[in-house]
Amino acid sequence: MTRKATAPTVVLFRRDLRVDDNAALAAAAHRGTAVMALYILDEETKDVRAMGAASRWWLHHSLATLGKRLGHAGANLYLARGRTGEVVAKAIAASGADCVFWNRRYDPSEAAVDASLKAGLREKGLTARSFDGALLHEPSLLKTGSGGFYKVYTPFRKAMADKTDIRDPIDPPGSIDGWRGEFAGLRLDDLDLLPTKPDWAQGLRESWTPGEEGGQARLHGFIENDLADYERQRDIPGVQATSRLSPHLAFGEITPFQIFACLRKSKSAGASKFRSEIGWREFSYHLLFHNPDLAGRNFRPEFDAMSWRDDPRALQAWQRGLTGYPIVDAGMRELWRTGWMHNRVRMIAASFLIKDLMIDWRHGEKWFWDTLVDADAANNPASWQWVAGSGADAAPYFRIFNPVLQGEKFDPQGEYVRRHIPEIGALPDRYIHRPWEAPASSLEGKNIKLGKSYPRPIVDHGAARDRALIVYQSIKGEK
Ligand code: FAD
């Protein structure tokens, strides 16, 4: 005879701020005892990277939405701040729980916190269980023929497709018997996640609807309106052709299982490309799982010998969108205003910082970490290292984006640049990506004063390219 469980279950929420397809929550509800839903803002555990400012803004709104959704289903969302292990111990003491469930995290520093939590709980005779949800594949299980991890995307993707069963999304619990006792938790405002002085989040508020419903609306809107043209249009920053699901994925408001389930019937080139991009996210996590310090250390050690330039003024000009190269500046301003930047422009802006300015990719990675609403522990460093050439399956070192040609190719009418740099909006298409070449007659009466209303280029791309090639060749030993 099985004994019926009676003590409550604590369910930890982290970057899985959803009710649908939430394996840990579903298992807790299924257990049939009261559920204590708990979010812990853990900024104290050593080695766990603190969230950037834009992510904190997102987190605030996502928690508010999750709290409402759980409330409708019957459960309180308790909020707390502190070390995960200590807060969980207090939650157990308050609720009398004998069981703690959570969905797995794959950032090694966070996974280590969870591993020690699991061991500690089990030592006390409590049940601790973790579930999947964030990734289609388990990085610890997918191995190359020689037992290592994958360093190149195409074989990784093939192995993932061959060896990973993509399950259906898990239904949300119909109702939850929420534990409603006393716990010394915090109110959402007490977590201090929002910017106040100054409140720079206006552009974020205008651009996003954080939370599970916002993520579902994005997914379905994208599939209906943009998926068919995704492959053709995804590189054009002036049109909205990509899903913009990245912050929803980063906060676990939507899962790759849900996305794949919605795409299951679609055989179009757009759907196939889109699946492949989600596959890049899996690959980034695979790399991070096996290379814990992906944000701090070159994946290819020969890059440790690189002589980066120390140029705070150039770094600041890049951060503020004042390099004089319109496509780079438009991207950096889109980032600052909305917390997001189009992928093509991320590549161009990153290449400019690394190869034109010869500034260490880690400075760029940090800036993105602070300013992106989709700042992601795996995608961000893996992408920066990819552009730098120091990463796995990285762009070849001699690929140095020309910001003018990239602008002309992907934003031919300058729609994107005009949206983000209105002060040069009146330039004819011909000069919109090379304002410094515009003859005086093109500037006349348009209130454009190069060097005053918009900067002249802070470096000459041709000379910068030559400099970068010399430095890169020196570390490759290919003179
Ligand atoms: P879509 O084109 O609609 O793609 C769907 C999803 O696939 C994305 O949401 C994302 O989860 C995944 N994806 C798409 N492209 C990539 C890629 N190249 N690598 C990994 N996953 C991808 N993405 C982040 O989610 N967080 C980051 O912090 C991040 N930093 C980046 C930094 C640099 C320098 C570069 C070049 C890229 C970075 N990316 C990052 C990858 C990519 O730019 C974004 O995922 C994408 O622009 C998000 O927009 P979307 O959701 O509309 O993408």
Folded structure, characterized:
The mean pLDDT is 95. The chain has a 5-stranded parallel sheet with strand order 3-2-1-4-5, sandwiched between helices. The radius of gyration is 24 Å and the shape is globular. Helix 15 (361-371) runs antiparallel to helix 16 (379-388). It has helices at residues 23-31, 53-73, 84-95, 108-123, 153-163, 202-207, 212-225, 230-233, 246-250, 256-263, 269-290, 312-320, 326-338, 343-356, 361-371, 379-388, 403-410, 415-420, 440-443, 461-476; strands at residues 9-13, 35-41, 77-81, 99-103, 127-131. It has 479 residues and is mainly α. The chain has 20 helices and 5 strands. Helix 4 links the parallel strand 4 (99-103) and strand 5. The structure holds flavin-adenine dinucleotide (FAD). Flavin-adenine dinucleotide (FAD) binds at residues 234, 242-246, 249-250, 277-278, 280-281, 284, 343, 346-347, 350, 368, 372, 374-376, 379-380, 383-384, 387.
Uncertain regions spanning at least 5 consecutive residues: none
The proportion of residues in beta strands is 5-15%
**Distance between the first and last residues' Cα:** 76 Å
User: What's the total number of strands?
Assistant: 5
Coarse shape: globular
Q: In this structure, how is the largest beta sheet organized?
A: 5 strands, parallel
List SSEs in N-to-C order: EHEHEHEHEHHHHHHHHHHHHHHHH
GO molecular function, one term: FAD binding
Domain Photolyase/cryptochrome alpha/beta: 7-136
Enzyme class: lyase
EC number: 4.1.99.3
